Amino acid sequence: MAIDASHEAGRQARIRLGMVGGGQGAFIGAVHRIAARIDDQFELVAGALASDSTRAKASAKEIGLTDDRAYGSFEEMARAEAARTDGIEAVAIVTPNHVHAPVAKAFLQAGIHVICDKPLTTTLAEAEELVALVRSTGKVFVVTHNYTGYPMVRQARAMVASGELGDIRLVHAEYLQDWLTERLEQSDHKQAAWRTDPARSGPGGCIGDIGTHAYNLACFVSGLELDELLAQLSTFVPGRRLDDDVQILLRWKGGARGMLWASQVAVGHENGLTLRVSGSKGGLEWVQENPNQLWFTPYGRPKQLLTRGGAGTLGAAARVTRLPSGHPEGYLEGFATIYAEAAHAIRAARVGEKPDRDVLFPTIEDGLAGVKFIDAAVRSSAAKGAWIRMS
Fold first, then answer.
1. Which residues does residue 259 pair with via DSSP β-bridges, in sequence order?
2. CA distance 120 to 114
3. 107 vs 289: CA distance, rounded Å
4. For the chain, how far is it from start to end, CA to CA, in angstroms?
5. pLDDT tens per residue across span 212-270
6. Disulfide-capable partner of 106 in 40, 68, 78, 262 (CB 3.0 to 4.6 Å)?
C-alpha cells in the first residue's frame, strides 16, 4: 500500500515545544531542555519562564527565544500560542508544585499536549479534576518520572512481567539524599526555599519531592498496585515546616509486602535511589548511582550482573538504549527517553492514531496515583501511624 507523504511528514516533523517555568536560577528547566533535544524530536519555540514577567523575558532571551514568543505569564502564552498557526503542540511544565494544576488546565483547554513534572498537583481534588480534563480533551499527558526511562529499569520490569522472579513477595524502595541536612531554606537557595514551603510544595516535603519517585519506580517495575500503607513522616531540622524523612510500610494487592524510605537528611547519601524486588524464584536489585547495572539472583544460584546493552538485554531495554555497552547512560538520557516516548505519542496524535504498544511513559493516571500516595502517607502519619487504604 502506498504511503501518504503528507501523513508521514506529519508524523516526523519536530514537535513545537513551549515551557512554563525553568528560568533563571532553576535547575530542572535546563534538564528538560537538554532532554527534549537529545533525540532531536522537539524544538523549543516559546516560554513563560518565570512568574515575574521581567525575569521571564530575560530568561527567554538567555536561551534564544524570540521576543514575540517570550511571555510574561502562562495565561498569555496559552492564549497566544493556541491562536497561532505555528503555535506550540506541547508544553513542558517545570514550575514549583502549586502551579502545575492551573498551568496544565490552561494548556489542555487550549488544545495543547502537556508534559508535567511530578508530583502532578498539590491536592487530590486538583489531580482528579485534571484526570477528567485529560479524558475529555483526549490530549497526551506525560508525567516526567524520569527513572522509568532508564534501560535497566525497563529490563527489570520486563523480567518481572515475564515471570522470571515468580510470584512477587517483597518490593522495597529507598531514595536517600542529604542536601537538606541543614536549614538551607533560610539562605538564598531557591530550590530549598520552595521545596520546604507548604504553600508551594503542598502538604508533603520529602514525600512529594523524592518519595513519589521511589513509589512510582516500585509500582512500575513490580506491576503491583498498593492496597494500604502505614507512614511516619518526620521533620528533623528545627523550624522546617515539612517532612524531611519518610518511612513507610507497604501492603500490596495480592499479598506482597514492602517498605519505602525516603530522606533528604540521610548524611552520606547523594542520590541513593535503590529498588529491590524479590519473588518466589528470584530477586532483582537496581541502584540509580550505577544505573547501567542490574543484579539478578535466581534462587539457589549465583548472582548475575546484567549490564545495559550487554548479554541478556531484553527488547524493552534495547529500544531505549542509545549507546553501545560500556558507554554510560544516566540521568539526562532517562529524561530523554520520557521525551522520546512522548514524541511518539504526540506524532501519532497528529494523524489521529494511537502510539505503538511498546511506547511507554508515565500517564495522568500515574500522576494521580502519586498524589494519592502523598495524601495517604500524610494522613497516616497525622493519625500516628494508622493503616490507610489507598483511595
1. 172, 249
2. 11
3. 35
4. 49
5. 999 999 999 999 999 999 999 999 999 999 999 999 999 999 999 999 999 999 999 99
6. 78
